[in-house]
Design goal:
alpha/beta, Aldehyde Dehydrogenase, Chain A, domain 2, 16 helices, 23 strands, globular, binds nicotinamide-adenine-dinucleotide
Length: 499
Amino acid sequence: MQELTHYINGAHVKGTSGRFADVYNPATGEVQAKAPLASKAELDAAVEIAAAAQPAWAATNPQRRGRVMMKFVSLLNRDMDKLAEALSREHGKTLPDAAGDVQRGLEVVEYCVGAPELLKGDYTDGAGPGIDMYSMRQPLGVSAGITPFNFPAMIPMWMFAPAIACGNAFILKPSERDPSVPLMLAELMEEAGLPKGVLQVVNGDKEAVDAILYNDTIQSVGFVGSTPIAEYIYGTGCSQGKRVQCFGGAKNHMIIMPDADLDLAADALIGAGYGAAGERCMAISVAVPVGEETADKLIEKLVPRIEKLKVGPYTSGNDVDYGPVVTSAAKENILRLVQTGVDQGAELVVDGRDFNLQGYEDGFFVGPHLFDRVTPDMEIYQKEIFGPVLSTVRAASYEEALKLAMDHEMGNGTAIFTRDGDAARDFAARVNVGMIGINVPIPVPLAYHTFGGWKKSVFGDLNQHGPDAFKFYTRTKTVTSRWPSGIKEGGEFNFKPMD
Ligand code: NAD
């Protein structure tokens, strides 16, 4: 059995707490490795190393820091297949989807190559007689990030790339379900030229998270995961005087207007509802057709598409639409919620409960499910299922559909499918959700915009990546200066490189 490590001060280090988490191959159900769960002492020791490494890194000019990011991008591309394979093996998602996970992280690293431009301050020449005033953005010191299982490459990079580009040291506490790729990323960052100790990976569970929250050296904490944990980390981190941003769960609605291209909408729902086995915070889990006729036609188009879905292990290559869910506990929870839907009177149009994959009977595969006539009082509507289960809530009008999305406590993403520019514009303007798709089912903003939901999908005010990340990982210092006129230097005739 492979024993995974932490990545501390440039080396793979074995855990000393004596506690481990099983890391499964979700396709076979086998335990393939064990991940060490750090004690408070192990976490605190890593923070001390980070604090010692950070000042020299902060003093390295932003252009050089950007060059490390540039080299890291080329190493990610070099190792793309290796990273995707390791990711699929622990997470279960298909290989192309795993490569997409790496790619969407890589794009944020590309953005961070622009650190010198992004960290440029503001300057007022002549703010008063002989007075100049300038503001600069300085790193916070040591930052930490706690990440979920469902994007083990992308979300760590969304956090550590901007944090490090800004001159911070970073402690990453990845999900204990799939920690191998984060460890590989830390190695690659050092191969790219990052000094030891600036990026460290400490594996762990609640004990390591609490050690982060109560460590006085750590200045900021980023979290992505489920809403109850987001709420806990936000409250505790803020009470400890840290800067905290937490991104939580989702229940994303897609509204299908009567004038929509229903083939387009059905295809979109298949990818957004069942892709990655529904284990995406931007998955569409609720379809809201407007009008009975739209609903009937939509269901008619969805059923054959769902029946054609190919579910299987990532080793089957491009032949598979989605893989297993991450653990047997996740599978049980999904099937339990499906049962509540049946019990509470929703119509289970496609029933995946008996799904069984020959040769992979112990894998955590869940067949696709489609519910119709779901109502807002049902548990399957209120809770995030995080599985291949699409619920249809029929709305009588556009206003009723809009109200549904607005009244749900989650507000990560939403979409509208329509040919009517007026309806689309109205929806985008009024809906109280952070990321909106117009004829786009999974509207994940690109690296140079920012990512974040509203309502219970977020705790904190700044979004992930884009310009917000450079604000989150720096603090502003403003200098007011007055200089008496002094002795002028002689000429300098040659270019000199910056140190
Ligand atoms: P999770 O909340 O179980 O775990 C996330 C992290 O928190 C992990 O690192 C885990 O070790 C840690 N953790 C778990 N329990 C803890 C506890 N009691 N105390 C302290 N730390 C704890 O989430 P998950 O199952 O890994 O990920 C799925 C969830 O993440 C879904 O709800 C999904 O919607 C959400 N998610 C949100 C976004 C977003 O940007 N909004 C993106 C991806 C995933």
